[in-house]
Amino acid sequence: MSKDLKKIKKEIEELREEIRRHDYLYYVLDNPEISDKEYDGLVRRLKELEGKYPQFITPDSPTQRVSGQVLEGFKTVRHRVAMLSLDNTYSTEEVREWEARNKRLFKKEVELDYVVEPKIDGVSCSLTYQKGVLVLGATRGDGSVGEDITANIKTVSSIPLKLLGKDVPEVLEVRGEVYMEKEDFQRLNKERAKQGEQPFANPRNAASGSLKLLEPALVAKRRLKCFIHSFGYSEGFSFKSHKEFLEKAKAWGLRINPYYKHCKNIEEVIEYCLKFQEKREKLEYEVDGMVIKVNSFSQQEKLGTTLKSPRWAVAYKFPAHQATTKLLDVEMSVGRTGAITPVAVLKPVECGGVTISRSTLHNFEEVERLGIKIGDTVLVERAGEVIPKIVKVITSKRTGKEKPVKVPKSCPVCGGKVSKVKEEEVAYYCINPACPAQLKRALLHFASRGAMDIEGVGESLVEELVDRGLVKDLADIYFLEKEDLFKLPLFKEKKAGNIFSAIERSKKKELAKFLYGLGIRYVGEKIARILADRFSDIDKFFSLKKEDLENIEEVGPNIASSVIEYFSQNSVRQLIKKFKKAGLILRKERRKTEGILRGKKFVFTGELASFTRRQAQEEVLKRGGDVSSSVSKNVDYVVAGRNPGSKFNKAKALKLRIINEEEFNKILEKGEI
Ligand code: IVH
Fold it and tell me: Is the entire prediction scored with pTM above 0.85?
């Protein structure tokens, strides 16, 4: 190796060490030394060097967390030491009984000291480090055999890819809990609702669903976190106690929950459990109890395990945030797409620190599942600051006077017809497109920042415009006269002027924003952008076929049918005509470079060094080319990056033209190689 190369290799290694140290300070000690910006600078420099000198990339480099590949499935792995579960206790009495039982198992009188830790409500995982490098991340599975989810585990920033220090064991297997913070959970569910996907019921399901995704790049976006809580197995190192393990693990850079406490006896344990219960609400993550562990490993060994769980550890479960109250009424709310949602009106009740007076029932299938009637006494629950939900009806409290909840025959707002749009869907819709409730929400959405961004068109103005009949469809906003606004109460000239210019400005918004603004079911901001990039002219949408849409990687069958259905309506044709008449362009600007890849179809497999999958696809589309997510005979180029998947083999079998990133770059530049 030349002197220069040696120097570069050294700089790369030093950068990695530095980044690892900052990861440790940030994630484990919660005490960063540098700003996010400075940290990003280090990562950028490392990426730059690794991009130029890929021969120096190692799997434990901080840049190697997210692999761009799509997995076909997970391999199974047998755990060296079984991953057991825990017995539960629900009262301080049961905790004392657990200790008494344990003490009886020793032949002579013993004193037991403990470590108490929060019980994180997430998904357990096992991590194996060989010579300090993370080589395996696995799920618990049935306790003996789990699944190899290494690629997904590597995306979790708080899990080190390499342990710190010189004294790391030859092999170390630890167990921990992967979880999602409450805030990230809520954000994710909002996003899912926007995209028409089913929300997760709680942060634990969200974490578990995320770890099962076959695309590590998507897992990385879920911002999962991890606390290490147990020792599994080691070679070349031994520990005397759980406390010693935790402290050593922390020094190696593993993230340990800061609230663990060493307690001298069971009374101290109980005191801490009760004290912690109060803290629970304030944490960023969900804790469903405490785990009490006998500290000494030799005592643990003597106590041993039952078939399912160790005798030396037990969970002290916190009571769920539940309360009983009365269902006073069920109101029907009409959403932007006309979906009718039953909402429970409850007698206000305190639950886990907040007062609950309403709770969504989601749909009529849920009403049926619960068997709920107006006047019923119900059990409500609030998990992790999530919207409260009705868990069940307490039927023993029925008086016979309860009234059934019926699907309304007509829309509670406009009196229009209510029906299921599709038999297989659970939702009922108001199918009158001119329904004022729908129109108000639709207009608010159309004018919102992510869509046409018409400043000043807020809730009160929308109410006025729709109630006074000034706006009867979305396009009417562009046909308003200044006098119309002056007629509205409290409308000053300047404000009217501002709104007018904002409306005027919005006519120049890009096609993607407009598409999103239309409020087509399942078409969120991201999908709208993808559709606009692909079809570039609103008129094309009227002649789309299902295959045209389903060929796009991100577009599933629900989105495809929804888009086709939307544009097949005559009223939509009229609406778009009206928008055009108002001066909206509704076409994507054509770029100069367009065309050099016309007629060429590309498929991507594996990771590219200088593009994400999406970026690479966009570069092709920009040049008039086409992309596909599956390999077939009519594909012109298969671009293979690092770790290519099954598409690579299929391409070989079909004798397609397989090119590397360098060649791809050339094609982007010249249109051919
Ligand atoms: S110790 C032998 N400590 O709870 C099992 N588990 O209900 C040793 N959990 O599968 C587990 N926080 O995934 C332990 N601080 C903690 C924990 C914890 C959460 C999970 C773990 C386990 C489940 C049992």
Answer: no
